[in-house]
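Researcher: Please translate sequence to structure tokens.
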Amino acid sequence: QAQVVESGGDLVHDGGSLTLSCTMSGGRMDSHPIGWFRQAPGKDREGIACITISGLARDYAPSVQGRFTISKNNARNVVTLQMNNLKPEDTGVYYCAIGTPWFATDQCLMSHQYGTWGRGTQVTVAS
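Model: Translation complete:
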């Protein structure tokens, strides 16, 4: 069964950049849609970026549109999330997840579309 592990979280300052990685084992990235979610302290988990099986379609939450980029590297079996111009409100635990067999592309930022989750990686943006 495919599993994913997140990495790359760190402490950065306002305006800084980070790249998170979601590495898959037991499966192939080119066979699964992938989503990135985050959970800030005291808040619900929110979908922020997603990419389809083919990697040709992507979607972003308005809060990160234009600053974050999700990409698939099928050769390395990794999905990355490039985050630029980070803000303190981007602080949280970031999770990647594998889409379910009934995944609907037009709902790819919804958590119920995902069945397997990583443990998360902490991103802290200091002002």
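Researcher: Any highlights?
Model: The two ends are 41 Å apart (CA to CA).
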